[in-house]
Design a protein that fits this description.
Blueprint: H1 2-7, H2 15-23, E1 31-37, E2 43-52, E3 55-63, H3 72-86, E4 91-97, H4 101-109, E5 113-122, E6 127-135, H5 137-140, H6 144-149
Parallel strand pairs: 3-4
Antiparallel strand pairs: 1-2, 2-3, 4-6, 5-6
Length: 150
């Protein structure tokens, strides 16, 4: 929660939202969460996926500011994409703040394309979200390592 509030001060998830997400992150559940820790065991990143039938949704990706730019976000995203393929998702959606160009570039490197805008999605700041989609996951799975390494 500390990292969540530090990285997303205007629109951080509540403790209850995370408990709800993690309650369904078990074998057979619709959620999948991964974390990244540094050499001292401190949490430096996390990411979450919701997969229901053919539909997948990136719930969150966060990387500690001191570890950004080193490929950690790409590794977390690649793990979520690989998990969505394992679960048989045909597409993967995500929302990203319209003012978060760095994240948008990361998603574009993995083949996500803009498909719409959700007005006022991020509250209470009332910031729009760009909706992005990755299609044909099964055919893209073998290329994941190349995307996050390039």
């Amino acid at each position: 929660m500390e990292l969540e509030h530090r990285l997303f001060p205007d629109d951080a998830w509540s403790r209850g939202m995370y408990w709800s997400e993690l309650a369904d992150a078990h074998p057979g559940g619709s959620r999948h969460y991964v974390v990244a820790v540094d050499e001292d065991g401190a949490l430096v990143g996390y990411a979450g996926l919701m997969a229901v039938g053919p539909d997948g949704d990136v719930q969150t990706i966060a990387v500690e500011s001191g570890h950004q730019g080193a490929g950690l976000g790409a590794m977390l995203l690649a793990e979520l994409i690989e998990e969505s393929v394992r679960r048989g998702c045909a597409e993967l959606l995500l929302e990203v703040r319209v003012d978060n160009l760095r994240a948008q570039r990361l998603y574009e490197r993995f083949g996500f394309e803009p498909v719409g805008i959700r007005r006022g999605y991020y509250q209470p700041a009332n910031v729009d979200a760009l909706v992005m989609r990755l299609d044909h996951l099964a055919s893209d799975a073998s290329d994941l390592k190349d995307h996050h390494n390039g």
